[in-house]
Give the backbone structure.
Amino acid sequence: MTPLLDVQGVTKRFRGLTAVDNVSLSVEEGEIFAVIGPNGAGKTTLFNIIAGAMTPDTGSVTFAGASAVGVQPHELCRRGLARTFQIVRPFPELTVMENATIGAMMRAPDMDAARARAGEVLRQLDLWDRREAKAKSLTLPDRKRLECARALATGPRLLLLDEVMAGLRPTEVDRIVAILREINRSGVTILLIEHVMRATMALAGRIHVLHHGATIAEGTPEEVTRHPKVLESYLGAEAL
Amino acid sequence: MNPFATLARLVDEAPRRALLLLAAFVAVLLVAPVVLDRYLLSVFFLIFWFATVGQAWNIMMGFCGQLSLGHALYVGLGGYVGALFWVKFGISPAIAIVPAMLVAVAFGAVIGWLGFRFGIEGVYFALLTIAFAEVARIGFDNWSFVGGAAGFFIPVSSAASPVNLRGGPMLFYYVALAMMIIAFILCAALRRSRLGHAWLAVREDAEAARALGIDVFRAKMAAVVISAAMTAVAGVVYAFYQNNLFPSQTFDIARSIEMILAPIIGGLGTLFGPILGAFILTPLGQTLIALVEKIAGRAIPGVNLVFYGAALMVIIWFTPNGVWPWLKKKLGIPEGRE
């Protein structure tokens, strides 16, 4: 079976700095796949390349059997790839319901269907009670979940989540972990970019570790946490 | 989209009380000419007219977040096309609104394409819209076929003919009232449509909109084109009301600015804002003009604009989001509703 997302030999340089260095990974349909790494490891650059917001200098990105390089973000979304933003970008002056409805419009035949779909997603993400509130009035955890709700409302095959757990309290992290599992069970493949280790270990089936833009390990959470290079990059060589 | 079904939905979803109030308001406006004299009829014509073009401009700025400071361009193009068809070929303005809209749409599309394709945003886009209006002014100033700087005139005929927009202030009162109502309904329908939601998303955050599958370029183009078409229709009516067109007035930036004040004062991005704003500003402005004429013994051009500036400052000071959002709160209407 061909993977849903296939990244082969992707490199991206900013002037002298190689932000992403010859990275390859593939995400199978139905799994939860995580990319982790310390600050400045190139996670967000890789994410932006996959999401169509940047083009790589070399390498290929294939989504659902077609090249995703140079494809406009709205077109990728149409093909079934939805993303969130690390720094959340809700539509502040619109209500929570309107935010989700806009996401749901893409696959809905009409606005009634879009609103119905938006309602479903808001319930799934525990935002139904806040539906009449303006997005700008939400707390950060609520905003993070709205970001997920909106992306999920587009009916994606692959959900790209950029540090949705960053800045959340542990109870909030547990809540979103449970929700993401539920989303995954409903058939959506998830690619997480994360900094929060505990949650990533609990959630992901496979983990890809970046350091200084390059791959240092890939495998199950157990394999990755035992990998000497991973320990070194996270804890420092002395800790070993 | 079936227009009648949409209309039925709009009526269906609006609260009872609001509908009754609206119906009463329209009814009053329908019978008002019985007591209005010629002067007041002309004041009301201006109110309706500014409410209409305010509504059109609001689609671009209020809904889609694209600042146009050159909407006089579409008024002028509409006016000239309508007048030319009537005077040169004897074609009724009722038919000529179609080519008038098409010409305005073509210009709007060019401006939009230049701006949105090449990422010209915010104030730079606004400058582009001003530039086009200015170029049009200079072009029409020097185009002898349409009278050049000396102006273009629509002959006054004694025989009233509503279809051809020939008649007195009473005719124009009703034409403009109809225009205002249609513009309102159109905007209400657009606001709740798929396109309307795409506009709001683009206004709020274009990058996020793109990530949700919205073709931002197309949404912006649709806003310019629809706004231009609506404004052009109002332009045809205005030309026939005035019976003359002078490039220096028609395409003047002062006209563009005057057009955007009502929606700003009334409330950007709202449906009632442009109407409310026009009902506040136009009568005050006209009163002031009359007053100055009485006191100074002659008309001082531009005095109403100075007044508008002052009014804008005062109103924005007290209600930063416009009068309608403030009024809405006072009336206890929930935030998410109109």
